[in-house]
Amino acid sequence: MDGAEQISRAAGIIKQGGVVAFPTETVYGLGTNAFNEKSVARVFEVKKRPSFDPLIVHIDNENWLTELVHRIPEKAKILIDAFWPGPLSIVLPKRSKVPDIVTAGLPGVALRMPSNLVALTLIREAGVPLAAPSANPFGAISPTLASHVKEQLGEDIDMILDGGPCSVGIESTVISFLESEPVLLRAGGAELEEIQKLIGKVKVASAMEHISHSPGRCERHYSPSTPLTRLSDPKYIPTELRAGLISVAPIEKKNLPPNIVSVEILSGSGDLREAACNLFAAMRRLDSSDLEVIYSLPLSNQGLGLAINDRLSRAAVR
Ligand code: TXA
Ligand code: MG
Q1: Residue whose C-alpha is closest to residue 190's, from 137, 248, 299, 113
Q2: 298 alpha carbon to ligand 2 midpoint, in Å?
Q3: How much of the chain is in helix, strand and coil states, percent to nearest 5?
């Protein structure tokens, strides 16, 4: 089967109430018909995801907006125009057409139009919005390759649509418009600085607020099974334990202590986009390298650094 046939087959499975892993520019998603409560329930089950954690609804064109949400504030419209299709999810007041199971009973639905062509074609051919979380077991590292999905969920789902590596590699930024001012619920592929240039200050929800606004934001997440420790000073890399090291930029390997047996440089030029794209695959490689601990070097919160730091700090929670 060629690519187009694969997409048609996947769309057919969605129409029949099935569950399909599909590529997006951020990470692979585990998609199903957002209007089919039964198949949405199966997504929660396959992922072992708690039912209080809502799913993002993926659309292929803006006509869906009037069917899915009540109103679109001006600032949300500006972000939609600027970032869609792309790695930005926007939470808006949902219409009753969106089943409560999708939003975990919350009044808002998170919407996103991915830029990945396979994803867009799949949604168009399925003819319905796709409710889709990242295609990993709850709490584990998000998949950026079809093979990652196969390893973790392959047995339990109806099909994996292989679209190659994800180009952004880190999940979408999530912004809520349910309150009078926009609130950042998750840092991600769309940079906060770029968003604030267009709509002014965006409130960054505190950890507690995160949990009530966006229950998926439990602290521990994106976790390798090897413990991960974030270092606050690159000068002091612990010399104990058989360890791996994650660094965004190149480092002098000859200065590293001998206990550091694997090193993952996320970008040869220190580029944060490239680093974000490589982060999850690097975490997976280190996790399968028989290490006692993974250390990560500090990184500024600028640009995609905010999202990378968020993922590393939550991977570090035991
Ligand atoms: O890039 C992405 O966003 C990927 C791809 C597949 O689109 N999806 C993804 O989904 O990362 P997931 O389920 O792993 O993370 C979605 C996040 C969770 O933190 C969830 O709590 C939040 O978005 N979220 C989803 N719907 C929400 C809603 N209605 N209100 C508040 N937060 C919501
Ligand atoms: Mg996820």
Answers
A1: 113
A2: 23
A3: 35, 20, 45
| Residue type present at position 292 | E
Ligand 2 centre to CA of 16 (Å) is 25
Query: Residue 176: beta bridge partners?
Result: 91, 183
Does residue 70 contact residue 161 with C-beta atoms inside 8 Å? Answer: no
Q: Give the CA-trace dihedral at 92, 95, 100, 102, to 10 degrees.
A: -50
215 lines ligand 1 (CB under 6 A): yes
Sheet holding 228-230, edge to edge: 228-230, 293-296, 243-247, 260-265
Confidence label for 234 from pLDDT (cuts 50, 70 and 90): confident
- Report the C-alpha gap between 29 and 118 in whole angstroms: 12
Ligand 1 neighbour 172 (Cβ under 6 A): yes
171 lines ligand 1 (CB under 6 A): yes
Alpha-carbon separation of residue 128 from 7, 30, 115, 233 (angstroms): 14, 15, 17, 49
Mean pLDDT of 91-115: 97
Residue 65: CB atoms within 10 Å: 18
Nearest atom, ligand 1, residue 108 CA:
29
Rounded Cα distance between 133 and 173, Å, is 14
**Residue ranges with CB less than 5 Å from ion ligand 2:** 134
Tokens 């968020």 map to which residue? 310
Parallel, antiparallel or unpaired: strands 88-93 and 56-58: unpaired
Whole-model pTM: value is 0.95
CB–CB of 272/312 below 8 Å? no
pLDDT tens string 11-29:
999 999 999 999 999 999 9
* C-alpha of residue 216 to centroid of ligand 2, in Å: 8
Gap between the Cα atoms of 176 and 110, Å rounded = 8
What's the 200 CA to ligand 2 centre distance in angstroms? 27
